[in-house]
Every structure is written in structure tokens, then in C-alpha cells.
Design a protein that fits this description.
Bound molecules: NADP nicotinamide-adenine-dinucleotide phosphate
Shape: globular
Low-confidence stretches: 276-280
Strand content: 15-25%
Number of helices: 10
Radius of gyration: 19 Å
Number of strands: 11
Length: about 280
């Protein structure tokens, strides 16, 4: 039976530390969240972020636009927030409705306020190993591995999924941690042959229970990033009940990577507030 990596407990511990740290601040850090449309999953993610911000003392501003708002109006709001000294971090809740150009909108966020780490400049800085704002979910994965003292140097890390929010940036962070990295995607052939070689297997696809026990090496560390709803219940990309009998460590869904994403978002907001990084 594996050790269950408790992302929720770690996230709450980190939030507690941040709360103490922010108590002495004269002006509270603040984040602006831009939402376009009324996607129920986005509503629920935003609520969770708002709750965590309130809990640690980060001021939360929520700008919700109708799904037919012109793209330019959204970009103009972002530009206004870029110039607002009382806003430390800005994020656009993804996905946006299809008609919008996500890249153009993300790139209109000032690099120094880009708490999701998604502008081209911040992505390039991360790839080049420069200090910068990094996407929250991959950061959360690295943080939970660190907490459980999982060795990465020289280990074979297999990441299933090459999305811009998780798979791609995580591959960069894993390489920086001296792991040997394989990234799989929808065109990968013989997926199971590759996943079976993983010392650390990360799945970020969005396909319920696609990682079955026969795809996992005995004793592997398994990180499940996927969030799926099946019959009204949340589950990950990993068949948790069966895989947990084989893995040495495993993250559950819920209460695994999800809460870590929120904790790392708060950390990125505090980083912006402290004005530490980044290219202008
Ligand atoms: P995404 O950008 O759509 O990426 C999904 C990736 O999965 C793509 O690279 C796709 O390959 C790959 N894929 C699809 N079917 C596959 C298959 N049969 N075999 C192997 N690879 C396959 O999604 P994302 O934003 O990275 O999110 C992935 C999952 O993580 C979703 O469930 C999302 O809800 C979840 N998520 C969770 C958190 C959290 O905090 N827990 C945060 C972000 C995302 P191609 O590139 O070839 O299309």
C-alpha cells in the first residue's frame, strides 16, 4: 500500500505560514482575477482561490465579463490593472470561451504581475533557468515531491500530457531538477511501455482513470494532476484504488495537487507583492 501524499494538509500549512508573514504588512497584497463567461468549473475554482486569499489576508478582486465581451475590452481592463499600484498579481481564469485568443490576452498581463506564469517572456525565462513566475500547478507538484523527500536527480520522470499549464512547464522544472524526462501525449504510441519505466509518473490529461495498475511500475511515485467529474464525483486520471496498491507514494484526487495549486498561487502573489522578480 502506498503513502498518500496529502496536498490539502501541506497547502493549509503553507497558508498558515503565509498568514503569519502577511500579518505585519501595512498594505495587504492583492490579486485581480479576470473571468469571461460563466463556466461552472471556473466559478468553483475562482471561489476556492477567493477563499484561500481571504484566509491568508490577500485582497481579492474579481472581474467577471459576459462571454460576448469584445477581446479589446478585456485587454484594456488588464492594462488598467497593470498600471494599478494596488494590484500585485493578475490572472485570467482559463479556459476562455473559444472565440478569444488566450495567448494574446495572457501576454497583455505585465510580466511582473503574471501570477500564473503564462506570458511568453516568463515562459522563456523559466526555460532559460532564470528566476521568474512559474505556473502554479507544476510548482505545486515540485513542492509536494520536495515535502515527501522524493529524490529526482537521475530519476526517470514520465509526464503524460504536454499542455501549457501543466505538462510542458513541469517538464522544464523536472529537467532543472536533474531528472531524466519523457513527455507523452495523445500521439504517443505504446504509452504503457513508457509509463512502466517511470520512477515518477505524472498524469495531466483529463481522462478519468486512464492510468491503470498495469501501466505503473511497482514502487513508482504517482502524481495525479487530472480533475474529472464522473457521476457527480471527482476523480483523477489515475485508477487510484488499484494503482495505490502498487505505488510507493501517490496523490489523491481530490486533496492532492489541487490544493497545492492554490497554495502556489498565493506564493506567487506574495512574490509579486515583495516585488522580487521579473522582467518588465
Ligand atoms: P490540456 O492542455 O488539454 O492538455 C492535455 C494533454 O493530454 C495534451 O497534451 C494531450 O495531448 C494529452 N492527451 C490527451 N489524450 C491523451 C491520451 N489518450 N494519452 C496521452 N496523452 C493524452 O490540459 P491541462 O490544462 O494540462 O490539464 C490536464 C488535466 O489536469 C485536466 O484534467 C485539468 O482539469 C487538470 N488540471 C488540474 C489542476 C489542478 O490544480 N489539480 C490544474 C490544471 C489542470 P496532445 O497535446 O497531443 O493533444
Amino acid at each position: 500500500m502506498s503513502i498518500i501524499m496529502d496536498g490539502e494538509a501541506l497547502s493549509l500549512k503553507m497558508q498558515d505560514e503565509m498568514k503569519q508573514q502577511l500579518k505585519s504588512c501595512m498594505i495587504r497584497p492583492s490579486v485581480a482575477v479576470i473571468q469571461v463567461g460563466d463556466d461552472p468549473a471556473s466559478n468553483s475554482y475562482i471561489k476556492r482561490k477567493e477563499k484561500a486569499c481571504n484566509a491568508v489576508g490577500v485582497y481579492f478582486r474579481h472581474y467577471k465579463f459576459d462571454a460576448d465581451t469584445p477581446e479589446l475590452s478585456i485587454i484594456n481592463k488588464i492594462k488598467e490593472l497593470n498600471n494599478d499600484d494596488y494590484v500585485n498579481g493578475i490572472l485570467v481564469q482559463l479556459p476562455l470561451p473559444e472565440r478569444y485568443n488566450e495567448k494574446r490576452i495572457a501576454n497583455s498581463i505585465s510580466n511582473s504581475k503574471d501570477v500564473d506564469g503564462l506570458t511568453d517572456i516568463n515562459t522563456g525565462r523559466m526555460i532559460n533557468g532564470r528566476k521568474t513566475l512559474v505556473p502554479c500547478t507544476p510548482l505545486g507538484v515540485m513542492r509536494i515531491l520536495e515535502e515527501y523527500e522524493i529524490e529526482l536527480v537521475g530519476k526517470h520522470v514520465v509526464i503524460v500530457g504536454r499542455g501549457k499549464l501543466v505538462g510542458k512547464p513541469l517538464a522544464t522544472l523536472m529537467l532543472a531538477a536533474d531528472a531524466t524526462v519523457t513527455v507523452c501525449h495523445s500521439k504517443t504510441t505504446n504509452l504503457a511501455e513508457i509509463t512502466k519505466q517511470a520512477d515518477v509518473l505524472v498524469c495531466a490529461v483529463g481522462s478519468p482513470k486512464m492510468i491503470t495498475a498495469d501501466m505503473v511500475r511497482e514502487g513508482a511515485v504517482v502524481i495525479d494532476v487530472g480533475v474529472n467529474r464522473v457521476d457527480g464525483k471527482l476523480c483523477g486520471d489515475v485508477d487510484f484504488d488499484k494503482v495505490s496498491k502498487k505505488a510507493s507514494y501517490i496523490t489523491p484526487v481530490p486533496k492532492g495537487v489541487g490544493p497545492m495549486t492554490v497554495a502556489m498561487l498565493l506564493e506567487n502573489i506574495v512574490t509579486c507583492y515583495n516585488n522580487k522578480p521579473v522582467a518588465k
